[in-house]
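#struct-help
A.M.: can someone run this one for me? Single chain, 449 residues.
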Amino acid sequence: MEKREFIKRAWPCIILVLLITLAAIARFYLLEDRLHFNVDEALHSQIIYDIYTKGIFPLQGPASSAEGGVYHGAFYYYVYLIPQIIAGGSPVGPAVFTALLSLFSVLLLFKALKNQYSAKLGILVCAFYCLSASVTFFSRYMWNPNLVPFFFILALYALSILQKEKTWGLVLFGFAVGAISQVHIGAIVIIGVAIMILPYLIIKVKRWDIWGYTLLAFLLAWVPTLINEFQHGFKLFNDLLNPSQPSANLSFIAHFQLGWNYFSNFFETSIKLPSIIFIISLVCSAILFIFYTAWKKPAEALVPLFLLLTIITLFLACSFYNGLLFIHFAEELFVLMPIVAGIFLSFLSEKRWGVLVAIVVLFICGYYNWFVYKKEIIDGERQYKIEREVCSYIQKNKMTEANINFNGKTNPNFVRYVCEREFSIKIGAGKTIDVETDFVNKLNFQIKD
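D.P.: on it. Structure tokens below:
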């Protein structure tokens, strides 16, 4: 009996360790060799480098792809400051930091869902999250949207411990919401979700000192942006409140179709399962919220309410705010999609026949994700390695400066950054070197006088 009880208690931990191990292998496999380091990453790395070498503290983050003057928060730069200092300016350091955050988020996701529902549901959701090749790929390099899944999971975990009457969870939730809304401007809708659950939070926490700490924790990530907004007449807020509407003449049904297409495509992209499973998963999630939580255990409705409102808010934003409708609109979906799929499998596994179906669904998910792993990671582009080889070629030819014509681009910033930071080679003067590469196998050099 004791052995059976031990197995019953230990199996979630054993499987979780296995999942985290597999996730670590996927995230660190040939990380430096296959590191994605292009125009955006080089620009951001240089800005961070200037913080600790020149004392230039940015107040405005990367520009958004949305129309107008919309930009992301500068908080992103400060998150990666210490990892880049430790790495001596190399982009490998921030990439390792991103991967470690992703691994830690697996543990937090399990803890949050175990606190709210059960260890079984936590394991199923983490299995989808760890299997997703899209989640893995975006956790292997430094980029502002790649931080959103971690902070969103941190918010979930904070609410799960707040529900256990640990009031410091509210402070952690405030910090997570502030960070989410700053690392990617599309994720600012999370503030609206937090406001919607505010009455529930006030009921849970009545200590005003905790609310004061929560406000400070939220504002921590917003400090650079608020200073910048004060200096420029709140331009960002004006642009957000007056977005371009290229499809304002669409009907309500057409708008909803846009949002539905976005959600179902994202499900197929991140989970690699057909959209019909997404439909069933949403139904199961709604049933779990309405009947299991809201009706039977209303005191424990905080986490599922947050999840449900986030899905609804993101869906409406994707449907009507077309200026931000692109795949990195809000990477909370990287977390939400595994959650709805995991809830679906949790429903199935309540019956013996359903366990077999759940295993088959997980196998299909892993099978189709494997092809993405092979294409994007195993056989993926060797951007950073190629850039280092270019710099090594210049160094071997005893040159301390050079002009580089890289695939038709003159002195692109990603080659400039690697050569100047890691090889002390000045780019923009001296002889010209023509470089042709496909970032996989092809790499040709030609020196011109």
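A.M.: thanks! The beta strands are 401-406, 409-410, 426-437, 443-448.
D.P.: also worth noting: DSSP finds 21 helices and four strands in the chain.
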